[in-house]
Amino acid sequence: MGERKKRNKAPETPTLDIPARPMPPEEMSKAFLAAPQVVAWLNEVFLDPDSPLYNEDHAHLRDAHIGALWTEVTNEKQMRRVAATAEQPMFRASAWGRARQEMQMCEWFGDIPDFVITIDARIARGMSDASWCALIEHELYHCAQALDVFGAPRFNQRTGLPVFAIKGHDVEEFVGVVRRYGAGNAAGQTSKLVEAANATPEFGDFQIEHCCGTCL
Ligand SMILES: [Zn+2]
After folding, report:
1. Contact 52, 18 (CB under 8 A)
2. Per residue in 163-188, pLDDT tens?
């Protein structure tokens, strides 16, 4: 009893002052539901410079329109259950196919977003806070700014806004998730990832046992 009390007073992992994470609705009335709470939360937690979990690797995303979806549709790839994906909306070539998909995006997000993050609601419900943070940040690392031939970030010449692209996980930016949350989340084999995995994570050590559909 005394031991437990003591442990509660001095937790091994310091509690971060971040807003409570959004949970999927108990009952999903549709196969996919827009999750604006997730976007608001990730903006506040990862993109706001005043947040303890702010990550400047995502600074370009302050100009991005991100849409998020909860789903209970099971997505399996390579025998593994996908926990989340990050995509850029891609439209069919036919006029009606495109219009139909654009209409759906507008109904969910009010506009065509730059990126869509889809999250398995059942997996999300069972995740620890740390796994949840690592998963969302992992998806954010996919939501990259395009680079020019010299490796410099690309901007739209007309609007001055970043040009966005989906980035694979075998790039050094993914070191960030490992550095911040520990190994297990990054599937890459690069030496930098190993290096980061051996260092002490900034926000507590744990394993993510779920999978990212964009990586698979
Ligand atoms: Zn991934």
Report:
1. yes
2. 999 987 655 556 677 777 766 544 44
The pLDDT score that the predictor gives to residue 18 is: 85
The closest of 149, 109, 141 to 214, measured between CA atoms, is 141
| Cβ–Cβ under 8 Å, residues 173 and 142 | no
Closest CA to 211 of 58, 25, 74, 70: 74
| 109 CA from centroid of ligand 1 (Å) | 22
CA 24, 123, 67: angle at the middle one, nearest 5?
Answer: 50
- 93 lies in which domain range? 2-212
CA of 178 to the centre of ligand 1 (A): 12
* Cα 83 to ligand 1 centroid, rounded to whole Å: 10
Using the mean position of ligand 1's atoms as its centre, give its distance from the Cα of residue 48 in Å: 23
Q: How many domains does the chain have?
A: 1
End-to-end CA distance of the chain: 46
CB contact at 8 A, 184 and 130: no
2 C-alpha to ligand 1 centroid (Å) = 43
Per-residue confidence (pLDDT) for residue 184, from 0 to 100 = 54
- Tell me the per-residue pLDDT of 144-166, one tens digit each, with 9 for 90 and over: 999 999 989 999 999 999 999 99
